[in-house]
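pasting for ref
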Amino acid sequence: MPVPATVREQAPDGSGTVLLDDGTVVAFPGDAPARGRFRLLRSGQRVALHRGPDGAVVAVTLPGEQPVEG
């Protein structure tokens, strides 16, 4: 189930951090935005985090959207 979050920052390599609604900072890898059809994220943007079976972030999407497979 996707977790709602707000983009905190994004590095040039695509990786970055988001703030969960409870204030927890969560990092995401550089390929996660592309799986959500993003090239760039902006600070303050509302997104949804999708996690893999191990709990790692695998995709960042707009709320309500599904990640691209691959």
